[in-house]
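Hey L., structure's done. Input below.
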Amino acid sequence: MHVQPQRIDLDHVTGLYRTYGDDLDRVREKQRRLLAPPQSMQAQLDDIEAEITYLLLRESRPETVVEIGTFHGWSTTWILQALRDNGTGHLHSYDITDNVVRGVPADLRAGRWTFTQGDARRNLEKIPTAADFLFVDAAHSARFARWYLQHLFPRLTRGIPVCVHDVFHGSRALPFTEGAVVLRWLAERGTPYFTASRAHAPETYDRLRDVKRKLALGLPLRDSHHNPMIFFNLP
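Output:
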């Protein structure tokens, strides 16, 4: 059953780590194996942002998840791990390349995944309006952001969790990028967002690292500390 999402902030996220820490530990080890030979998957998300995505999926228990941008499938596998652990939900993924098809293990995708190859902008009618969780990690241009803000977001239900990658590689989003456009759009609507970006929100990043250490989740999957993703509820 779908659960009404809560506001995404530091207290909520730290609470999710504590609630689902044991499950997250098991999933991290499954994901670690995907990074090792012979799979050797290329990972895009850093650990904390991948984990937060998993935790939000566990808590909100969506029935329909939309992922725009898959590349080799690191984010796809995290999402599918959450749906499998929930025992419910289906993922609809979109990308112009089909690398992900070779990367996602068959047992993980069976019965819970639909992949559509092609530009999401040309497949808008195929994106389910019933989506109750949205993950965006595709073209990071201002033009692409304006497209989904104008054409995709209005089709979806208000309040659903949204994840947008590659916003805060630095203390500020670069001008004329997807991140700058999305942040301005959120500000105009008075909608808060959450990020664990080390560059933009170092205190939040340190707090979550401390929570992870206390839960024995500190051993990294990837040696990376950018965490540029933002999370918010769709206004």
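The two ends are 22 Å apart (CA to CA). The first strand starts at residue 64 and ends at 68.

-- N.
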